[in-house]
């Protein structure tokens, strides 16, 4: 599909929000948001409990490489686990990482699973994952404080999308975004992901062959 890097307004919005938001917003029990990174699209799903937070990020590179999914869990505001599912070069070459922490922050389990072997995780990588977990939590807080939400649905052709919740609508995409969708016309399902916020509506990604079945559900999250 065409490169989406020209869509940068929401990435800029994220930076503005992050610089102006330091407190945790009032957040619904289950939310979705996202943003455009330099080299791909990031979707974020979040489930909040009384003392527990589950954050799942899905990074999809623009260059067509395999997507990377990372799950973070906090208990009583302390990171207790981070687990990444990705690929080194192709789907047949897994590169998965699992880290678990005690309530005092000490590492209790670590493992990196590569194709046909397991490896220990070096201390620098562990610290990087801990830093990235807090960065993604702050990013999620900022996006939700700024009322930037992720929506997804199946493209029906023309300017119609059926959301994963079953509602037919016409997102307020600009002409360029609609032309991008038209170029995907192949007869295969097309999952459209977009962001809505005070600054407008932003196409995030269009994924041929994907359906709403790939979207996390609150009951299973």
What kind of sheet is the major sheet? Answer: 8 strands, antiparallel
DSSP strand count = 13
What is the structural class? alpha+beta
Radius of gyration equals 18 Å
| Residue runs with pLDDT of under 50 for 5 or more positions | 1-23
Principal-axis shape: globular
Residues in helix, %: 10-25%
Number of helical runs? Answer: 3
Mean pLDDT: 85
In short:
With 221 residues, this protein is of the alpha+beta class.
Descriptive keywords:
221 residues, alpha+beta, eight-stranded antiparallel β-sheet, five-stranded antiparallel β-sheet, 3 helices, 13 strands, globular, disordered N terminus
Please, could you describe this protein's structure?
- With 221 residues, this protein is α+β, with helices and mostly antiparallel strands.
- The protein has a domain at 23-147.
- The protein has 3 helices and 13 strands.
- It has helices at residues 9-20, 123-145, 175-182; strands at 30-36, 40-48, 52-61, 68-75, 78-85, 95-101, 107-114, 117-119, 149-157, 160-163, 168-169, 190-197, 200-208.
- The strands form 2 sheets. An 8-stranded antiparallel sheet has the order 1-2-3-4-5-6-7-8. A 5-stranded antiparallel sheet has the order 11-10-9-12-13, covered by helices on one side.
- Helix 1 crosses helix 2 (123-145).
């Amino acid at each position: 599909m065409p490169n989406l890097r020209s869509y940068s307004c929401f990435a800029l919005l994220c930076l503005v929000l992050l610089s102006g938001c330091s407190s945790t917003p009032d957040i619904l029990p289950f939310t979705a948001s996202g943003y455009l990174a330099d080299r791909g699209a990031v979707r974020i799903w979040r489930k909040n409990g009384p003392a527990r937070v589950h954050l799942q990020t899905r990074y999809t590179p623009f260059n067509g490489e395999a997507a990377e999914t990372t799950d973070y869990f906090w208990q009583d505001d302390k990171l207790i686990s981070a687990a990444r599912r990705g690929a080194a070069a192709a789907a047949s070459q897994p590169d998965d990482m699992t880290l678990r922490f005690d309530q005092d922050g000490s590492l209790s389990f670590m493992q990196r699973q590569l194709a046909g072997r397991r490896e220990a995780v070096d201390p620098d990588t562990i610290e990087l994952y801990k830093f990235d977990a807090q960065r993604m939590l702050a990013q999620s807080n900022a996006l939700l404080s700024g009322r930037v939400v992720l929506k997804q649905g199946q493209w029906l052709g023309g300017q119609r999308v059926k959301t994963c919740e079953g509602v037919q609508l016409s997102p307020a995409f600009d002409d360029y975004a609609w032309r991008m969708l038209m170029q995907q016309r192949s007869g295969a399902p097309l999952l459209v992901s977009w962001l809505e916020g005070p600054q407008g509506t932003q196409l995030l990604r269009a994924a041929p062959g994907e359906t709403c079945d790939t979207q996390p559900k609150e009951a299973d999250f």
